[in-house]
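FW: tagging you since you asked about this chain on Friday. Here's the raw sequence from the shared folder, copied in full. Didn't touch anything.
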Amino acid sequence: MGALLLAARANAATLMVAWNANPEPDVTGYYVVYGTAPGIYTSRLDAGNQLQLQIPNLVDGQTYYFAVQAYNSFGEWSDASAEVSALVGPAPLMSIDTPAHGGTVRGDFALAGWAIDRGAPVGTGVDALHVWAFPVAGGAAQWIGTLPYGGGRGDVGAAFGSQFTPSAFNGVVRLTPGTWDVVIYARSTVTGTFNNARVVRLTSLPPQSNPFIVIDTPRAGGVDKPLLIAGWATDFAVPPGGPGPGIDTIHVWGYPDPGSGRPPVWFGVATMRGSRGDVAAAFGSQFLECGYTVVVDGVAPGFYRIVAYARSTISGTFSSAASVDVTVR
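HL: got it, structure written out here
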């Protein structure tokens, strides 16, 4: 079994063991096997289909060695995973408060909770949090990033001591679509190692696109050649600080005498990334470079409905359009 296994130092009563899912489709659960000598497992606990298990009734000061075995409905079980060890002592603790295990997320979402190492003489005992995502269907893990740490948690301070108050983490992350076991690893200032982890299983859906496009020029009415078509376009689903403006291509067509059945005239692909400070001031700096322009010459005189179609970088589709009716002289 190719399980990712981690055992965290614990108090005299319990120890937390966590692992990633076995990708084989017939797996129905996991055994945690352990003992006090490498490779010799004198105890076994059934974790069911969970991906972490609290191990009870351990001895303070004792080092334990752990492995995980997957099993199926026929009573068959796999070879043991790679072994890990942990010393029972003052326990590091962590909680993922949001999102909930088994939940669904879309696009950017908040990953928040708290983490401490109770063995720290001062401070919270944690100085870094790393996040990885493991695909439930199998495949390579994805590095998600680090989480900002040190926010106030009065409830944690009240429960464990005021030194542990600045123990909150809260970061905005994104997963590619799919089902993932997201693992947060906390690095202890006591041991200098990533000795604590928590797992939350999430199903990620594609982000919800919210595109918008405006034609500022020309205004409705009579216009002269060459015809300048200009405006701005964004996808408001781009978060603050994200890669804006969320639109990467604009196609412009002219429909002569709308309703007449005459074929549309290709007006061209817009030049992108024009600076629009007014839009950025109103909606966020990520939308600064949202301006576009198209210059059309050689179009026959007549009445046209100009339509500009914007392609979102989030949905990958031309999902927004704006139009203006003009008479080309």
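FW: The longest strand covers residues 194-205.
HL: agreed, and The domain at 211-328 is CATH 2.60.40.730 (Immunoglobulin-like).
FW: great, closing this out.
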